[in-house]
What we know:
The protein is α+β, with helices and mostly antiparallel strands. It has a single domain (2-145), classed as Alpha-Beta Plaits (2-Layer Sandwich). The chain is built from seven helices and four strands; from the N terminus they run E-H-E-H-H-E-H-H-H-E-H. It has helices spanning 11-27, 42-48, 58-65, 80-88, 93-99, 104-108, 123-134; strands spanning 2-9, 31-38, 70-78, 117-119. It has a four-stranded antiparallel β-sheet, with helices on both faces. The longest helix has 17 residues, at 11-27. The relative contact order is 0.23. Adenosine-3',5'-cyclic-monophosphate binds at residues 52, 57, 61, 91, 112-113, 115, 118. Adenosine-3',5'-cyclic-monophosphate is lined by residues 52, 57, 61, 91, 112-113, 115, 118.
Amino acid sequence: PVEHTLAAIKPDALEEYKDEILERIQAAGFTITQIKETKLNQEVAEEFYKEHKGKEFYGQLIDYMCKGPSMMMILSKENAVQEWRSMMGPTDPTEAQAVSPGCLRSVFAKSVLQNAVHGSSNQKHAMEKIQFIFGDIDMDGKMNGK
Ligand code: CMP
């Protein structure tokens, strides 16, 4: 069955590598079901990353995500949540380069904070974040409790 995940190209990566990253997403066989460029404000960024509230990097993360537009996407494919996570690679680009040289973060990330892309960590988060960013859309008749 087709699965959906919430993916983002973060501000610095969007400015520098938009086309390269979108090409790789298409080449990997994802369907971009929804896409929108949006500059998060502080309130939205804090809600989006509420799971990280209290961590020492939380303030930096919110500032980083608000500094320019991000590309928000719903990526769809079989096993999309896990497939997108493995395509991104580890959070920290130093680790990404060591264990997964071809992944997006090993190629495009600048640091563990400025790590180019985001993806939902599991299916529950994916559905929550899709609804938070794109609203109550009906992608295939099964999302959002329908
Ligand atoms: P992301 O996968 O979007 O989820 C949380 C984000 O917090 C992560 O990518 C990084 O941008 C950032 N992050 C995670 N760990 C650290 C860290 N140790 N130092 C700074 N930023 C971090």
